[in-house]
Design goal:
alpha/beta; Arc Repressor Mutant, subunit A; two-stranded antiparallel sheet; 10 strands
Length: about 400
């Protein structure tokens, strides 16, 4: 399996005695002592006069118009997401999955006035979810994919909580509001009381719905053919291990999570061991030569992640591997999915944060891991993977 080092330059620097992982520009810990110059192309973009000249100049006007369209998409993004939410709530994609419909019949099915439904359908067509042909509205391939991807609709349906938290982004970033999303995922803050078991089940179900595609991408990037026992820490109801078992039926499996979560986990394999516990308070069981943390680190702050990584290190045998799989920021090359969506989402959760590869590498090495590598992500907006070995 071909792998990219987290950074060739970083590897060289980190190997030097007393060296520390370099900070990433724009991230905490990056020191700036004085203002820098505005770049040449940025100065051009700041000139209204040059905009007018470029707009009248062949070739250049293609660039300015493309950038103008991209900028408008940024400005209009909130309305796009709200149109998508309306399409989901009226189940328009599911209705069209059964058959194509003319607008009047579709209005009867949805209970919307034709003039308003027409606006929504045009929006859906602009998003390439639906299309209008021969007087009928029908499902487009992108719309079909949308309702096929596990967990995607549930993700969209719970977005109003996030939108309310971001209604005043200035207050949100200043920390002047208590995010509602933090109450949606309560058990990331610690063990649940018995009466909160329903919340754990709601969390686990939403994670399970979306985790299959994460599991599939992770398992394409990680080589488990020589592994003997895989333990998934914080693994919910076992979606990742279930997918691993399909690919490696002779692999022994351990699922470690809170008792309330494991109570609704299905023992899908005789090779599966359920290990109830809290990685905050309990040691990680030994016996696995590969331990995975799938969508775990970004749920928690550093003061939880650092001891967790040390516990994982201590539970592994020499040469044992840790697999971290989650949305990982782009660092010096920001990624829209990770550095916008997931970064703001985890901030609203009020518990964890989205980290970049250099930050995770540094934390792994501080816990005692070596040979930190990052396979090239298939779809960073789904997940990225970082692996390391116990030294």
């Amino acid at each position: 399996m071909a792998k990219d080092e987290v950074s060739a330059a970083t590897e060289k620097q980190a190997s030097a005695p007393g060296a520390q992982a370099p900070s990433v520009p724009g991230q905490p810990g990056h020191k700036v002592t004085e203002p820098g110059r505005v770049s040449f192309f940025t100065r051009i973009a700041l000139s209204p006069r040059l905009h007018e000249i470029f707009e009248r100049t062949p070739l250049f006007n293609r660039v300015t118009r493309r950038e103008g369209r991209a900028l408008f998409d940024v400005v209009a993004g909130f309305v796009h997401s709200q149109a998508l939410l309306a399409i989901v709530e009226f189940r328009i994609l599911h209705i069209l999955a059964e058959a194509s419909w003319p607008l009047p019949a579709l209005a009867d099915r949805t209970g919307l006035a034709e003039n308003r439904l027409a606006v929504l359908m045009q929006a859906g067509a602009a998003l390439k979810l639906v299309k209008f042909r021969r007087g009928m509205w029908e499902l487009a391939p992108r719309g079909a994919a949308f309702i096929t991807v596990p967990g995607l609709e549930a993700m969209v349906r719970h977005h109003p909580v996030l939108y309310r938290d971001l209604a005043d982004p200035v207050a949100f970033l200043k920390g002047d509001i208590e995010p509602e999303l933090a109450g949606f995922w309560p058990y990331v803050f610690g063990p649940l009381a018995q009466e909160d078991a329903g919340l754990a089940e709601r969390y686990s179900q939403l994670m399970a719905d979306s985790q299959r595609i994460v599991a599939d991408d992770t398992l394409r990037l990680v080589d488990l053919k020589n592994a003997k026992r895989l333990m998934d820490v914080g693994g919910g109801t076992g979606t990742f291990l279930r997918q691993a078992a399909k690919l490696h039926p002779n692999l022994d499996l351990t699922l470690f999570d809170l008792p309330h979560v494991l109570a609704v986990a299905e023992p899908f394999s005789p090779r599966l061991t359920l290990a109830p516990g809290s990685f905050r308070d309990d040691p990680i069981p030994t016996g696995a030569d590969v331990i995975s943390l799938v969508r775990v680190l970004y749920d928690h702050p550093d003061n939880v992640v650092e001891p967790l990584l040390k516990k994982v290190h201590d539970a592994l045998p020499p040469g044992g591997r840790i697999v971290v799989s989650e949305a990982i920021g782009g660092g010096a090359k920001p990624d829209p999915a990770c550095d916008i969506y997931f970064a703001f989402y985890t901030m609203a959760m009020s518990s964890g944060r989205t980290r970049n590869p250099e930050e995770i590498k540094k934390m792994l090495e501080a816990a005692g891991f070596v040979k930190v590598t990052k396979p090239r992500s298939l779809r960073p907006f789904i997940t990225s993977v970082i692996e390391a070995e116990r030294g």
